[in-house]
């Protein structure tokens, strides 16, 4: 979501940009979907939070090769599909239990920018590779973040493109499990087939306490830049077999510089269970 991407942008990018200080590597093309416009998406877009391919764009010593490790869980047994918060809770647990690759796209009504990204996250081995690309006003800013255990490195172009070690860790673009207690108006929406996977759809709204929790979780201190406040957030989630999230489409209702606006995020999740293999980048002193 917008606030989540903002946190990563603040970590990865030291150069400011007209809309958000963020950026990342080019994402791979989005998965195919059999039907329907995402009820909350607005931007219609590309990736899975990243990371569809998981590989950072550009030169660098890091490796993001996916491995078909034994981290993939067996599909859930046949039976009735949970609904509402029960299904979203199970899906949130899987996001914390298995490696996953994502692709994302973000746009907004207050500025003509487009943020795309790709990510590979392994909660088992505590490794993350994130690439972002921000395009606005003819300017493109690209950035990458690498996490291995408790250490994090970031680089961006512009300004210099050199890797540096950071103290802030990348945060999941959508901490679904932690948000479940704050969900209201949860209801079933039409499912669809995403990359060959049948899904069940659930729509939900985050209450005011949940919005505050999310901002604190992402930013650490609950503050947002640019005189921005979040007035509300709704999202649609499509969950496939084994409670694997396949798509989340979010709409943030914000106030930016005193004016109402909206931010639209679409994230696709794929390659569940495929771990990654990262090596630390070379830091230029």
Would you write up a description of this structure?
It is a single chain. The chain has 285 residues and is mostly beta strands. It has one domain (2-272): Clam (outer membrane lipoprotein receptor (LolB), chain A). It contains four helices and 15 strands. It has helices at residues 2-12, 84-95, 176-179, 208-219; strands at residues 65-67, 100-108, 113-122, 127-136, 139-148, 151-157, 164-166, 183-189, 193-194, 197-198, 200-206, 228-239, 245-256, 259-270, 275-277. The strands form four sheets. A six-stranded antiparallel sheet has the order 2-14-13-12-11-8. It has a five-stranded antiparallel sheet with strand order 3-4-5-6-7, with helices on one face. It has a two-stranded antiparallel sheet with strand order 1-15. Strand 13 (245-256) and strand 14 (259-270) form a beta hairpin. Helix 1 (2-12) runs parallel beside helix 4. Mean pLDDT is 76; it is low at 3-30, 35-70 and 72-79.
Radius of gyration: 18 Å
Q: Just give the CATH class.
A: Mainly Beta
User: Which class best fits the helix and strand makeup?
Assistant: mainly beta
Q: Give the beta-strand count.
A: 15
């Amino acid at each position: 979501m917008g606030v989540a991407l903002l946190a990563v942008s603040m970590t990865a990018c030291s150069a400011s940009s007209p809309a958000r200080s963020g950026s990342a590597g080019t994402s791979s093309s989005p998965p195919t979907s059999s039907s329907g416009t995402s009820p909350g998406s607005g931007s219609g877009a590309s990736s899975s939070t990243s990371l569809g391919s998981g590989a950072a764009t550009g030169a660098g010593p890091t490796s993001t090769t996916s491995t078909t490790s034994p981290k993939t869980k067996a599909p859930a047994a046949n039976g009735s599909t949970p609904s509402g918060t029960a299904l979203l809770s199970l899906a949130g647990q899987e996001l914390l239990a298995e490696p996953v690759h994502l692709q994302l796209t973000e746009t907004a009504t207050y500025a003509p920018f487009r943020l795309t990204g790709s990510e590979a996250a392994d909660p088992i081995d505590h490794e993350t590779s994130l690439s972002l690309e921000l395009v606005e006003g003819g300017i493109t800013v690209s950035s990458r973040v690498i996490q291995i255990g408790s250490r994090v490195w970031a680089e961006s172009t512009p300004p210099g493109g050199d890797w540096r070690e950071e103290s802030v860790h990348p945060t999941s673009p959508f901490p679904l499990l932690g948000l479940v207690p704050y969900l209201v108006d949860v209801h079933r929406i039409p499912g669809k087939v995403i990359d060959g996977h049948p899904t069940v759809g659930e729509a939900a709204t985050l209450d005011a306490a949940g919005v505050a929790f999310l901002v604190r979780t992402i930013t650490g201190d609950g503050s947002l830049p640019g005189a921005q406040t979040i007035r509300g957030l709704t999202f649609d989630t499509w969950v496939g077999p084994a409670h694997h999230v396949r798509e989340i489409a979010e709409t943030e209702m914000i106030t930016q510089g005193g004016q109402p606006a909206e931010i639209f995020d679409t994230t696709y999740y794929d390659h569940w269970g495929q771990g990654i293999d990262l090596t630390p980048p070379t830091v230029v002193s």
